Amino acid sequence: MTGLYLSYTFDWSVVPKSFEFLLRGLGITLRITVLSIIFSLALGLIVALVRMAPGPLGMLGFAYIQVFRALSLYVYILFAYFGIAAAFHIDLDPITAGVVSLTLLNSAYMAEIYRSAIQAIDPGQREAARSLGLGSITTFGNVVFPQAWRIALPSLVNQFTDIIKDSSIVAVIGTPDLMYQTIERVSFYQRPFEFYTTVGAIYLLLVLIVAQVASRLEKRLRRHLA
Questions:
Q1: 185: nearest Cα among 198, 170, 203, 201
Q2: 129 inside domain
Q3: What pTM does this model have?
Q4: Can you say how many angstroms the Cα of residue 72 is from the centroid of all Cα atoms in its chain?
Q5: pLDDT tens-digit profile of 61-91?
Q6: Rounded Cα gap, residues 109 and 8, in angstroms
Q7: CA dist 30 to 106, 132, 164, 225, Å?
Q8: How many CA atoms within 13 Å lie on the side-chain side of 201?
Q9: Domain limits at 42?
Q10: Residues 124-149: pLDDT tens digits?
Q11: Domain annotation covers residue 6
Q12: 81: DSSP letter
């Protein structure tokens, strides 16, 4: 086994030769990531509000969170792509199946983040807003949510980075994303170290960019809401 490692010769020239394929896959990865983040943010907020409602509605939100946090993304993707098609004859393309799976999983986590942030706001602020004649929707949109968003942002950013990393799993259903293209290039050139090192660096760069953008946004929010 040691001899096999010693006999491996590096050839980084295969990476530039595959730049077109990797760039194409990166575009698909970014598309899946952005769509999943947008839908997860919106659906997560809705689920959080439902979760905080009294009675059966609140139990429905609780059930949603527990169910979609219980299983792995791998299971969701296979179910969305193969299971739904077999049971209901609804054929989702690989990109749609990936976005749906990522959205369902991450919206459940984001719902809990939203809920914790909203409940952290002093109830006295709601009462003060209502005493000024503001309605419930206006109070939430202008008073509660801006402050809750600032509190939730660091945890939401963690979910953003999880979406970026988890998006690589969509390759299992043939989605031509960055990971899929990388696997194809590895199979073609038989250069696993070079390609997997490259794709690892690309994912790391994406995560660092998101973290940097979020940090600047958090500073801006802190300045405006201070």
A1: 198
A2: yes
A3: 0.89
A4: 14
A5: 999 999 999 888 899 899 999 998 888 888 8
A6: 43
A7: 16, 44, 8, 31
A8: 8
A9: 13-225
A10: 777 787 777 777 787 887 788 888 88
A11: no
A12: I
Q: Is 175 helix (H, G, I), strand (E, B) or coil?
A: coil
Which two three-digit tokens encode residue 102?
């990522």
Q: Which CATH number characterizes residue 101's domain?
A: 1.10.3720.10
The closest of 38, 163, 174 to 94, measured between CA atoms, is 174
Number of domains in the chain: 1
Nearest-angstrom CA–CA distance, 157 and 210 = 8
3 lies in a domain?
no
Task: Tell me which long-range contacts 142-151 makes (C-beta under 8 A, separation of at least 24).
Answer: 144/118, 145/118, 146/221, 146/225, 147/121, 147/225, 148/114, 148/117, 148/118, 148/120, 148/121, 149/117, 149/221, 150/218, 150/221, 150/222, 150/225, 151/116, 151/117, 151/120, 151/121
Mean pLDDT, 10 residues at a time, the chain of 226 residues: 64 93 96 96 95 92 92 89 87 92 95 93 79 77 84 90 93 93 94 94 93 80 61
Within-domain flag for 2: no
Q: Single out the residue of 187, 185, 197, 191 nearest to residue 24, CA to CA.
A: 185
Answer yes or no: are the C-beta atoms of 29 and 180 closer than 8 Å.
no
